[in-house]
């Protein structure tokens, strides 16, 4: 595809919030649509479409910029639609499926967009939209921790989002969330405390209006944050660098699988993002020296939840790339 039209495949990612909203509006078992799309349909499509090393690092990104903002706005629409559905149905098995669908969208579509916009100019409209998107999943401190801790210490033992070899995704999520809270408090204590107070007040306000609204808001946030932390777990797993070692492209996993790249705004080209965090997603490039994930993010989600299989597979890939996978002391 020519550089002029390279933004078109990224429209595919907007199908996620559209399907999620449509399922919530339709009600009933349709509210599971987001779950089925992301966790059942997309893994097969990701396998079928294979990989591509084509990038356009010098392209003009106006259309890409619109797309990432639509993803962020989509989170607000999904949350509002979820509130509307819960006001009608209350808490049921089917509305619980709707909460999880909303959360998966807000993790796969929303937090990925917030990550991208959080690297834009501080206090700009895009930056504030990122904070609002993260507030919608009770994770507004992410921008602070991510920009001040993760991008400084990625793949080091001190980075709470980089998982050492042998740690399961289950253990990682339980460990990383409180560590990131402490990291954000250490980096920007006043701002982070203010965020927590506002988030707590918002949840309390929802509970006073109607308990199902507060419950739905928290459940979708848990699903979104879990998906985010799975991605963090995947991106640097087992790839360690010493405190005095300069970062390079071997310290992050790369995936060139088309569907993952298109729907997740090139997030799988993660080494390129870390080497220059201000680079917009449409201008990220591939790095042949990076260890390659055997599958796209949608397939890796399932494999990561079978730790022995996941561990053997990534060790094989790292060895093929000439990288020694180190166990944390």
Tell me briefly what this model is.
The protein has 329 residues and is mostly helical. It contains 13 helices and no strands. The protein has helices at 15-26, 33-49, 62-89, 93-117, 125-135, 142-153, 169-187, 189-209, 211-236, 258-263, 270-275, 297-304, 307-320.
Explain the overall architecture.
This protein is mostly helical and 329 residues long. The chain has one domain (3-320). The protein is 62% helix and 0% strand. It has 13 helices and no strands. The protein has helices spanning 15-26, 33-49, 62-89, 93-117, 125-135, 142-153, 169-187, 189-209, 211-236, 258-263, 270-275, 297-304, 307-320. Helix 1 (15-26) packs parallel to helix 3 (62-89), helix 4 (93-117) runs antiparallel to helix 5 (125-135) and helix 6 (142-153) crosses helix 7. The chain is globular and about 55 Å long.
Question: Secondary-structure map with pairings?
Answer:
Blueprint: H1 15-26, H2 33-49, H3 62-89, H4 93-117, H5 125-135, H6 142-153, H7 169-187, H8 189-209, H9 211-236, H10 258-263, H11 270-275, H12 297-304, H13 307-320
Helix pairs in contact: 1-2, 1-3, 1-4, 2-4, 2-12, 3-4, 3-5, 3-9, 4-5, 4-9, 6-7, 7-8, 7-9, 8-9
H-E order: HHHHHHHHHHHHH
* Biggest sheet overview: none
Number of strands: 0
Number of helices: 13
Mean pLDDT equals 94
Q: Could you estimate the helical fraction of the residues in percent?
A: 55-70%
What structural category characterises the helix and strand content? mainly alpha
N-to-C CA distance: 47 Å
Q: What characteristic shape results from the CA principal axes?
A: globular
Whole-number count of domains: 1
Measured by DSSP, the beta-strand proportion falls in: under 5%
């Amino acid at each position: 595809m020519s550089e002029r039209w390279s933004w078109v495949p990224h429209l595919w990612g907007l199908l996620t919030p559209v399907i999620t909203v449509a399922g919530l509006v339709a009600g009933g078992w349709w509210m599971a649509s987001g779950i089925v799309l992301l966790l059942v349909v997309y893994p097969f499509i990701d396998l079928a479409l294979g990989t591509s090393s084509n990038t356009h690092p010098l392209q003009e990104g106006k259309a890409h910029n619109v797309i990432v903002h639509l993803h962020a706005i989509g989170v607000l629409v999904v949350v509002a639609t979820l509130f509307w559905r819960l006001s009608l149905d209350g808490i049921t098995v089917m509305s619980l499926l709707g909460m999880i669908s909303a959360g998966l969208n807000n993790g796969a579509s929303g937090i990925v967009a917030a990550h991208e916009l959080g690297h834009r100019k501080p206090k700009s409209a895009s930056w504030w939209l990122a904070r609002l998107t993260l507030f919608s999943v009770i994770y507004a401190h992410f921008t602070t921790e991510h920009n001040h801790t993760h991008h400084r210490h990625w793949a080091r033992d001190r980075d709470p989002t980089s998982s050492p070899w042998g740690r399961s995704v289950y253990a990682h999520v339980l460990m990383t969330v409180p560590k990131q809270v402490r990291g954000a408090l250490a980096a920007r204590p006043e701002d982070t405390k203010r965020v927590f107070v506002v988030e707590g007040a918002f949840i309390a306000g929802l509970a006073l209006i109607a308990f199902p609204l507060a419950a739905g808001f928290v459940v979708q946030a848990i699903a979104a944050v879990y998906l985010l932390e799975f991605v963090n777990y995947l991106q640097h797993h087992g790839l360690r660098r010493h405190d005095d070692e300069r970062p390079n492209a071997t310290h992050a996993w790369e995936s060139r699988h088309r569907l993952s790249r298109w729907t997740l705004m090139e997030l799988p080209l993660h080494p390129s993002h870390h080497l220059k965090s201000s680079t917009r997603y449409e201008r990220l490039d591939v790095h042949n020296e990076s260890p390659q994930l055997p599958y796209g993010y949608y397939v890796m989600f399932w494999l990561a939840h079978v730790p022995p299989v996941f561990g053997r597979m990534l060790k094989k890939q790292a060895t093929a790339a000439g990288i020694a996978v180190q166990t944390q002391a």
